[in-house]
Amino acid sequence: MAYLVPLFPLIGFLLNGVFRNSLSKGLVGIIGCGAVLASFVVSVILFLDVRAGGALAVQPLYPFIHVANFKIDFVFQVDQLSSLFLLIITGIGFLIHLYSTSYMHDETNDHFARYFSYLNLFVFSMLLLVLGANYVIMFIGWEGVGLCSYLLIGYWFKNTDYNKAANKAFIMNRIGDAGFLLGIFWLLSKLGTANYTDVFANVSNLTPTDITGITLLLFIGAMGKSAQIPLYTWLPDAMAGPTPVSALIHAATMVTAGIYMVARSNALYSLSPIAENLVAVIGIATALFAATIAIKQNDIKKVLAYSTVSQLGYMFLGLGVGAYTGSVFHVMTHAFFKALLFLGAGSVIHALHHEQDMRNMGGLKKYMPVTHWTFLIACIAIAGIPPFSGFFSKDEILAAAYAKNPVYWVLGVIGAGMTAFYMFRLYATTFLGQFRGTEEQKHHLHESPAAITIPLIILALLAFGGGFFNVPAIFGGGQQLHHYLSPVLTAEHEHEIAHSTELMLMGVSVGVALLAAIIALTKYARKPELNEPEGLGKVLANKWYIDELYDNVIVNPLLALGGFFKNVIEKSGIDGFVNGVGGFIQYSSRRLRLVQNGKVGTYILLMIFSILILWLAFWYQATITGFFQKIF
Amino acid sequence: MIALLLILIPVIGGLINLFIKNESSAKAFSLIVSLIVLAVALGGIYTSQADLLHFDISWMPDLGSRITLELDGLSKILSLLTAVSMPVILIAVYKDHYPDAGKFFGLMLLCQAGMLGVFLSMDALLFYFFWELALIPAYFICSIWGGEKRIQVTFKFFVYTFVGSLLMLVAIIFVYFHTPDHSFALKSFYNAHLTAAQTQWMFWLFFIALAIKMPVFPFHTWQPDTYEQSPTAFTMVLSGVMVKMGLFGVIRWLLPMFPQAASSNSSIIVTLTVIGMLYASLIAIKQDDMKRLIAYSSIAHVGLMCAALFAKQQAGIEGVFIQMFNHGINIIGLWIVVDVIEKQLGTRKFSELGGLAQKAPTLAILFVVMCLANVALPLTNAFVGEFLMFSGLFNYSPVMAGTAIICIILAAAYTLNMIRKVFYGNTVASTEHAHDSSFNVNAALVVLVILVIVFGFYPQPMIDLTRETVQLFITKIS
Amino acid sequence: MPIQYYIILAAALFCIGVTGVLIRRNAIIIFMCVELMLNSVNLLLVAFSKMHYAISSANNKGTAAITTGTDAQLFVFFIMVVAAAEVSVGLAIIVMMYRNVHSTDVNFLNRLKN
């Protein structure tokens, strides 16, 4: 039955893709949304089945690559982890499909169908990614989602900048993918299998070096997909795509694939302290770094993008300190509130006719009430203020980080403060104060239609209540998610800190977040930041000049090397040599040709000389043979 | 019998075609001949009667040379490639005008016959004979129907390949004199008595000959020029099928003949090919011409196949076997699109193209799929081959695999740039009045796209087809 | 008379002939020099033939000589006949050449070039 889940979106993709010129928009929308809704229904059934203790379903579909050294099947695995991700992907995916029917309504018929076919293809790939029962199938989905991300970022393909952003996303992801592939090869060469069950059962056959190597290589893949330092710069640029795409791919689902992969491989990661520490360090570094950039961005989507990078950093911190459930939990709550934020931003952008600069917004509270309230809920959730969902998941990660190393916790709380600050800066600048756009825009300001607001409301409910799926023991909660996931996340470290300490930590982080939120609100509600920043602010607004750094340190030298190869080595070197040989022969032939001057006398003279030489050679035959024998 | 038919049909068809004056009947005739060849090749793959796959009669008994043809896993997959690609190419160029079409398509068929002969012959002299037979039409086609610089470039092509052929001929004759029974038969060649030093010499003579054909860095510079200047229909044959002759030679002749020398030199060759892959990929990034870009991309891909062969890991070799087919399919698809663009708009330069996706959406979709196959995206055929090859290479040397895998990143960079610059963005002067591709082009591309996707989803039949041959090959070379 | 004298004379004649062919440009003179070379060879033929006869008759006293010493003279006549034929053809060519280019200078005829 598991194969039905990806099958529906695949059919949707094919229908919408092949008949994109003949289907009406309504039909395209029904096919696109219906496919994902069907998957969602199946996913719910699967989830309930797994929850009820159904047998771990590993379903081989057909042999994919069977060679002598290893056998890779096209096989799906429905267990606690994948069924949870199925729900997130298809559930949020459906809401975003629904939202898109309205958001993308201005597109022409065939492009509308193209959009939905890409979106369905994305859902298909993402489902492959989480359903696969071995790393190769995961990799197939992994690259598939990268492709869809590329296609959707470059959806408006007339715009060269968007296309460049799409290329950047794909290429940066490919860097990670290369690492991922090498990790798979390492596994295959040591264990001869890539199936999760077989790999985790045979971990003891691997040396510590192998485990560290494999986990680090896999983590490179996660860095690319989940936009961690140093491979994060594609994600903010990926905001070139339509906003629902940003919500679905670049916030809720695809970018969390790295978390999924590390969580899935917890049996490996927990055996390699080096890898765990690296994951944690990269995670917290990214969380802080991206948060600093987010503070000074003025593009509403860019703020959310850096916020996503930062939140992903928290999830990796959680993975690195062994709080796998916490990270998966945060994936879930983040999917709710970040999708909500993006969709809310999309609603705003839609209302303002593709205006994305916050400095030209303001005061939208009174024009767009539904968007405003849902957005506010999402802001509170992401800021980590109880009892909204973000509080529970972030707190679980932070508590585990404290248990591992208090420094992580301190940095994490600083990051949480920054998160609250930039989110409420965004909220205040956009929704509070006076409207700063043109009269034309003001005239058209209106609340978005139901196809947009309904997903917002559903997501707002989830963003508010999502935390109650895993209430920590300290509040008398049952930690349902923790128990649910425990069969797959066997390697989880139990963080042992006293309840009083935990309460204190919570208090501090909530206090910091509240303080930051209040500062941001008071500072920006009246007087938004409209001037160009200076000093450090300018550096932050320019994203620490990392893009320029990459261009100058990696891209340009490589291009220069390519140019050197092309123009110097290829032309003058190899071709020069080859043509030189040819040229030499031509030159010498031209010289030699002069001997043939057409005068019989010369020919006779040469003949006579040749006869003389032959005669001499004959005479001194013995000497000459001796000479040659000596040489060879 | 099938083996003989595979060669005889295109020879006879090609010879007849040379004398057909009428352009449309020449095209139709050659298409029919190529379809018959395809049918025969499919028959060869599906037949259960093993005796149909062999053919053996005396040829030059005094020299110990026989006409021995055989269809094993390797030749099956390559003859399938040759047989599939020819009708696809002919369909794709069906509406193009060629002066002296009868001769052009006749030579194409003769070339096909030569290549099939190379893949089928189990006798060194016969192999050499067909090797040259495949090249002769190539020279004529390039020098008569080629681009502006055709004479110069054909000369270069000729010199390169001829040097290679001569080296190989020398080696064949030398080994022949050291065979136990003075015979050109493949088995005798495998058992030739050579001293270690002689083996080294012969290995390198053979290797250089084959390396020029593949081509492997630094013997590759004929390739971009020749691809650029030959008529595109022939470029497809050249890059899709003919360069596989080099890899085929390595598998059928070089490695089993000199397993020791191959092992002792493998580190040099693998390093060289990996350097060549990076080198070609970096050059491809800087290209401004679609044909040259694809040519360099092909050098990188062939380099990987060569590296995987010399790494001598079973998975890698299985990958090479199927990748030879897949690469042929993919690159022909790319050339078809390039040909359409060049014929319609008169340019292949990125700087003069752009926004074609608005004018030619069908072509754009098909091209993007072929490009994705070129970057070996999962669920396209090339992924399976590259996955296996890289995993073989990784078993051989993780460092080499780690270096070589940079190429998949670079491949994404140049391929996507090509898509972006040609198809995306706004239209420019040259593409303002472009129109979508015609029916025959779409048909040819759709066939290829179906192959790409089917073998991407379900590659196992192809792996099974070559399994036994790979097993034999592995036992021979280890 | 020792054989060396004949050889030296023949070699001298031959060299004169060769030199003449090489350095003269007049076709008729070249032609004559060719004849001179031919005749030097004739002279050698006759001389060696005679020598062989003398040696063999000295070695086989009383018995019949293997050669009579005149076979070479036959050859020489033969050669002279052929040479006469050659001369007639050659002179005809020279006459034709003169008619065409009004010169007997062989360097004028360098069309073999290129």
Question: Could you describe the 3D structure shown?
Answer:
- The complex is a heterotrimer of chains A (632), B (478) and C (114).
- Chain A has three domains: 134-188 and 203-541, no CATH class; 542-584; 595-632.
- Helices cover 73% and strands 3% of the residues of chain A.
- Chain A has 26 helices and two strands.
- Chain A has helices at 4-18, 25-51, 80-103, 109-131, 135-153, 160-191, 196-201, 208-225, 234-237, 243-252, 257-264, 266-269, 273-295, 300-320, 324-351, 369-383, 389-404, 406-431, 439-444, 450-465, 480-485, 499-526, 536-541, 546-593, 600-619, 621-631; strands at residues 57-66, 71-78.
- The longest helix of chain A is centred in the C-terminal third of the chain and has 48 residues, at 546-593.
- The radius of gyration of chain A is 32 Å and the shape is elongated.
- The model of chain A has no long low-confidence stretch (mean pLDDT 86).
- Chain B is built from 21 helices and two strands.
- Chain B has a two-stranded antiparallel ribbon.
- In chain B, a hairpin with a 4-residue loop joins strand 1 and strand 2 (65-70).
- The mean pLDDT of chain B is 89.
- The longest helix of chain C has 33 residues, at 27-59.
- Chains A and B meet through strand 1, helix 5, helix 6 and helix 24 of A and helix 6, helix 12, helix 14, helix 17 and helix 18 of B.
List the helices and strands and how they pair.
The complex is a heterotrimer of chains A (632), B (478) and C (114).
Chain A: H1 4-18, H2 25-51, E1 57-66, E2 71-78, H3 80-103, H4 109-131, H5 135-153, H6 160-191, H7 196-201, H8 208-225, H9 234-237, H10 243-252, H11 257-264, H12 266-269, H13 273-295, H14 300-320, H15 324-351, H16 369-383, H17 389-404, H18 406-431, H19 439-444, H20 450-465, H21 480-485, H22 499-526, H23 536-541, H24 546-593, H25 600-619, H26 621-631
Chain B: H1 2-18, H2 23-46, E1 54-60, E2 65-70, H3 73-92, H4 101-120, H5 124-145, H6 150-177, H7 186-190, H8 196-213, H9 222-229, H10 232-242, H11 244-257, H12 259-285, H13 290-311, H14 314-345, H15 356-359, H16 361-374, H17 381-396, H18 398-404, H19 406-423, H20 439-457, H21 460-477
Antiparallel strand pairs in B: 1-2
Helix pairs in contact in B: 1-2, 1-4, 2-3, 2-4, 3-4, 3-10, 3-14, 3-20, 3-21, 4-5, 5-6, 6-8, 6-9, 8-11, 9-10, 9-13, 10-14, 11-13, 12-13, 12-19, 13-14, 13-17, 13-19, 14-16, 14-17, 14-20, 14-21, 16-19, 16-20, 17-18, 17-20
Chain C: H1 3-23, H2 27-59, H3 71-101
